[in-house]
Q: What sequence folds into this?
């Protein structure tokens, strides 16, 4: 990864190489943390964070589900995020805020341990490669099922959830694919390990509902809004595996993944086997929106 200078840790800036934790940190052993992934893009008016308030809101929502008390206010995290970008003099970056149970006692009860909060910013290019963004990625439907809400909360960004994502990712890579797609416990499509998923069928978008275990993705919501404004309807409905195979187009959405087309799933070519026309339209609109080129969506940007 590309290092930057300073990381915000519990209200103070710490040098990148000195932002360390104790080996007996609760969150390291038990996955007891919540986090966010946010992007900041260069615009004509300077760096702007995409939907920062929505991301911070989701961080607090994840903490609520986990009964974790974040020892900073919404406004403090909001300002600290922008300040971290400023002090590192970044024009474009990925932002990773995290809150986790720190070091004090071992054992499953985290409540005697401090809640530590950090915000790091660093350059992060394309998630699944430049080529993936243009031509699409090859995916494998994972043999690992997406965590069910009766086991771990898929609608919260809990660090522990990502052990499930990592297993799916590893399996896909081992089998020679670029990304995984996870089914939920009912065998319906849930999402990617770090992305929401959409298909295009007969000019309409279909995406799994939250009840299928799809994270309330901020990019997902942005795509639904942009599509609606262009007269494209989105249906939030259960998707079967074979609906994926028979889709006209398919794509992932996510802060890191942005809008990444899917060109093949388990040996079946999707649509024309490359980026489809509706995917391309939404993708190019998305990149104009995040760079502040579309007036209508300027309220999604928080200038640094
Ligand atoms: N589902 C999951 C499981 C997920 O982790 C993400 C984001 C999304 C959907 C899309 O949500 P949104 O970013 O709000 O549109 N995944 C983050 C972490 C990726 C990683 O590899 O780390 C991200 O994109 O920042």
A:
């Amino acid at each position: 990864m590309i290092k930057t200078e300073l990381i915000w840790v519990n209200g103070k800036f710490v040098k990148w190489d000195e932002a360390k934790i104790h080996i007996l940190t609760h969150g390291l052993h038990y996955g007891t943390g919540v986090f966010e992934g946010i992007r900041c893009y260069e615009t004509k008016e300077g760096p702007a964070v995409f939907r920062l308030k929505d991301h911070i809101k989701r961080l607090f929502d994840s903490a609520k589900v986990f009964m974790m008390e974040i020892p900073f206010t919404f406004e403090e995290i909001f300002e600290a995020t922008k300040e971290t970008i400023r002090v590192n003099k970044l024009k474009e970056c990925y932002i990773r805020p995290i809150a986790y149970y720190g070091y004090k006692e071992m054992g499953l009860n985290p409540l005697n341990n401090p809640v530590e909060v950090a915000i790091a910013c660093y350059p992060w290019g394309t998630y699944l490669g430049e080529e993936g963004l243009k031509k699409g990625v090859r995916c494998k439907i994972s043999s690992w099922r997406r965590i069910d809400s009766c086991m771990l909360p898929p609608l919260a960004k809990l660090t522990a959830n990502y052990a499930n994502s990592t297993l799916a990712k590893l399996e896909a890579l081992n089998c020679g694919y670029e990304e995984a797609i996870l089914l939920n416990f009912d065998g319906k499509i849930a999402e990617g390990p770090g992305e929401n998923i959409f298909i295009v069928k007969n000019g309409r978008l279909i995406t799994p509902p939250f009840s299928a275990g799809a994270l309330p993705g901020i990019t997902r919501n942005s795509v639904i809004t942009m599509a609606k404004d262009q007269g494209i309807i989105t249906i939030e409905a259960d998707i079967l595996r074979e609906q994926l195979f028979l889709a006209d187009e398919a794509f992932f959405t996510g802060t890191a993944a942005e809008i990444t087309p899917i060109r093949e799933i388990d040996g079946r070519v999707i649509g024309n086997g490359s980026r489809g026309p509706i995917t391309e339209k939404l993708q190019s609109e998305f990149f104009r929106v995040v760079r502040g080129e579309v007036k209508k969506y300027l309220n999604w940007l928080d200038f640094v």
